[in-house]
Amino acid sequence: MTLARENPNDAGDDLVRILMKLTSDVERFDSMVVHQRKMARHSEQLSLQAAERLNLEAAEMVACARDALAQLRRVSETRNARVSA
Question: Which structural domain range is residue 26 located in?
Answer without folding.
Answer: 9-84
